[in-house]
Write a structure and sequence with these properties.
Blueprint (H helix, E strand, L loop, with lengths): L1 H4 L2 H9 L4 H24 L8 H10 L1 H4 L6 H13 L1 H11 L8 H18 L9
Helix pairs in contact: 2-3, 3-8, 4-6
């Protein structure tokens, strides 16, 4: 299913990184969310930061890669919408640290941030919590 959500080159970028399984999941989710949020922003004329939860939910409901892989119901739509929206937290942090807008972030920047964050957590003895976005 992962390959349905990410492009092959995005999968390869994450797979090459020195990340735990949890960190790889979070990085993959952030990359997917970045793509979705950029597309919604482009279609609506809004910035990524202005995209509403309802617009994300509408996207989730209509995303062919999701519909082809998973049977959608309201609880899944809410769950997945929350995952995408939660990805804004690290994306905002990455944008601030890079000195640009979320819209300008690249897959390489996202992966590099998760590598750096994971290294810091390990050095501090803090286990990266599942979906600690």
């Amino acid at each position: 299913m992962e390959s349905d959500f990410l492009k092959p080159e995005e999968c390869a970028e994450v797979d090459m990184a020195l990340l735990s399984s949890k960190e790889k999941f979070s990085a993959r989710l952030a990359i997917y969310a970045l793509r979705v949020l950029k597309q919604i922003a482009g279609e609506t004329g809004l910035s990524v930061a202005e995209v509403s939860n309802q617009q994300v939910m509408d996207w989730v409901r209509n995303d062919e890669s999701i519909k082809g892989s998973i049977e959608l119901d309201a609880s899944f739509e809410n769950f997945f919408t929350n995952l995408v929206v939660a990805s804004l937290r690290p994306l905002r942090q990455i944008a601030v640290e890079s000195g640009g807008a979320i819209e300008q972030l690249t897959v390489k920047q996202v992966v590099a941030w998760f590598v750096k964050d994971g290294k810091i957590r390990r050095e501090q003895g803090v286990d990266a919590a599942f979906l600690d976005l």
